[in-house]
Amino acid sequence: MDDEEYKKLLESAKSELPEEISKHERFEVPEPDVMIEGKSTIVRNFIDIAESINREPEHLLAFLLKELGTPGNLEGRRVVFKSKVAESLISERINEYIQTYVLCSECGRPDTRLVREGRILMLECDACGAKRPVHVKKGSSGKAREPNLIPGNVYTVMIQDVGNRGDGIARIGKYIIYIPGTTKGSEVRVKITTLRGTRAYGTVVRE
User: Fold this and answer.
1) Residue 187 structural domain
2) Where are the alpha helices (DSSP H) in the chain?
3) Are the beta carbons of 181 and 205 closer than 8 angstroms?
4) pTM of the model
């Protein structure tokens, strides 16, 4: 089948869609409700997130454990990671999961199902009829990939130390972040104001 025939089939499938599917409501996924407790990180609304994207919690958790490089387990409606993980990193990995395992590459909708054909995992779209193999990005491993800090973005961090000038020091991957007015052991939301190589400076975002 050539590309032109495939497009015609997709258009035909779309024209026969039920009205309730063609008028799909806005796709909204809850932001992770993250809490640091000792040396553990808890996502208190994990099941809510899994339900919003219509995926098995165990599948989403297995992906996150691999990508974040940390052990963890489900406890009721929450998940507990056995290490400290930045909220921003958890959000990035959940978004990556959604792009890979949920959203249709043809119509961009989340009305999809995971089906296995032999050894190949396929993503089938109930909205437009498209089907594609799931492509997991090369390089995915048990070690979490380091995020790139972006000036102007807000990140949740744990102050791990205090510098000579009294600024709190936090770390995200390879980056060292200096944050005035913070104390060791506190968890804060910080807006990155300056980035110089792997050294960053930020200010606390007050709620």
Assistant:
1) 154-204
2) 3-15, 19-22, 46-52, 57-68, 87-101
3) no
4) 0.58
